[in-house]
Amino acid sequence: MGGIYWLISQVMLFWHSVWDKVVPDHRVLGTNWQWVLAIVFLVITVRVVLFPIFVKQIKSQRAMQAIQPKMKELQEKHKGDRETLQKEVMKLYQEEKVNPLMGCLPMFLQIPVFIGLLHVLRHLRPGTSDHQMELYGWSIPQFLSAVDARLFDAPIVAKFSSNATELARIDANSTTVKVVSALLVVLMITTTYLTQRQMIKKTGWNTDPQQRMIQKFMLYGIPFFTLTSGWYFPIGVILYWVTNNAITLGQQYWVLHKYPPPASATTNTTPFKQPKGAKAVSGTTSEAKPSGFGSLFSRAKTEAEQRANGKVQGGAPKKATGGSADTAASGPSRAPKPGAKPINPKKGGAAKRQSG
């Protein structure tokens, strides 16, 4: 790991020398911006180097999503025959030119960088011998400057769990360190959650219980674990994590619009947030039925359209001319039978019947 520590140190020292020529040498808002920006641009450098691999990761994930229907067919076909299933799956990967490991490669490549920065910042502590100061290509003035670097009056080498003795060596205030660390941890948790939420919101919840459990762990479990890790990490490392999450959000937003998930990826999913009154059916959301005044308005509109077409609700035609609308053709016909004598009611018969 010595080579990684040296590489991380050289990238930080390079960006520090760049920003040392741009920003003032003294603290502004209690912050040595040369060192803070050196950490921020360390993240940017790593992400720029890994960006082509990140795009390949997204393409690999899209390819994996596209072959999911074929994967399910193989699972159903070779159910109970694990050895044959593995062979057929590997054959499918070769035919479709899919590499499932590519989806995790950028994360694996960033782990050594994270560990290297953590080691370098822990290496920056007062009372170190001249020989140890000059490890990984640091000069003594650079080492002492980094030890004294602050972010809003909190040293970037301090931790939330730093004891009074450690803080006294770097002339730091315990309350300031804890407040700055806590705020950065909140940002770290929030950006970690938003990164996972952005992906699930685009693809939806998987209907498979196991896959959905993994999604929930990624959405809620990982942010919870970052809460505990923020207790032990130096402020500079938490700053690195927050910056990395912010860049990931931007890259992910661009990729999700540039390379949207295939239609097959949302076949067995439900929306991240369903509208009220709607039921999810195999990845789609049924329209919510109108209620209250909306229902009455919809019914009146339907009846008006039926009347305009010459029909009432029941399918009976209206009279073309004269008569009332209540004479719908329902029940037995009252037309005279063939051959029947015409009936001529006497005048005044209706009046007699009424008086009778």
The pLDDT mean sits at 75
How many β-strand stretches?
Answer: 6
Report the sheet with the most strands, covering strand number, pairing sense and barrel closure: 2 strands, antiparallel
State the order of secondary-structure elements, H for helix, E for strand.
HHHHHHHEEHHEHHEEEHH
Q: How helix-rich are the residues, as a percent range?
A: 55-70%
Tell me which oligomeric state these chains represent. single chain
pLDDT < 50 stretches = 279-295, 311-333, 346-356
The first-to-last residue Cα distance is 118 Å
Q: Approximately what portion of the residues adopt beta-strand conformation?
A: under 5%
Q: How would you write the strand order of the largest sheet?
A: 1-2
- How many helices? 13
How many whole angstroms does the radius of gyration measure? 37 Å
User: What gross morphology would you assign?
Assistant: elongated
Specify the structural class: mainly alpha
